[in-house]
Amino acid sequence: MLQQLQRTLGEEEIWKRYGIVMKELLAAYRRGVGGVAVHDNGLVWASAPDKALTWMNALAGGVPVVSRDGYPVEINALWYNAVCYALELASRFGEEEFVGEWKAWPERIRNAFREMFWSGDDGYLADFVGPEGPNRWIRPNMVVACGLDYK
Predict the structure, then answer these.
(1) What are the structural domains, with CATH classification, of the chain?
(2) If you placed Cys at 9, which of 13, 22, 129, 150 could pair as Cys (CB 3.0 to 4.6 Å)?
(3) Where are the beta strands (DSSP E) in the chain?
(4) What is the pLDDT of residues 53-63, one digit of tens each?
(5) pTM (2 decimals)?
(6) Rounded Cα distance, 151 and 110, in Å
(7) What is its EC number (predicted)?
């Protein structure tokens, strides 16, 4: 992760080396690419029946072993972290156009994430939310959401 590398290289070097790529990746997700798209609520929807789009979706006979079509919790936690991190660096280094375009996104994503994944009754996050609703299986994916710099 770039946030880990930043501890060695520093913010300025990270932004010089990777700022353009970070901005391009965020824009690609917003446009939609390869079965992944950002919906109006700000969350990432991943669905491609013949592709493994998350680390759990190994393929057997051309189909995912564990189908998790919808909003995967770890992908959305990583998305939120990426948006917040890019915004932090962009604002430090005077990228006003980028900041203006993205500044409302963290709140949108954060609010939608809580509404979509959190179950107060169960006391934990859904593994993913698909067309049938939340999947409440306990899997290690929700740990990713807890271990990122931006939560």
Answers:
(1) 2-146 (1.50.10.10)
(2) 13
(3) 36-38, 44-46, 59-60, 63-64, 71-72, 118-119, 124-125, 128-130, 133-135
(4) 888 878 888 87
(5) 0.94
(6) 8
(7) 3.2.1.33
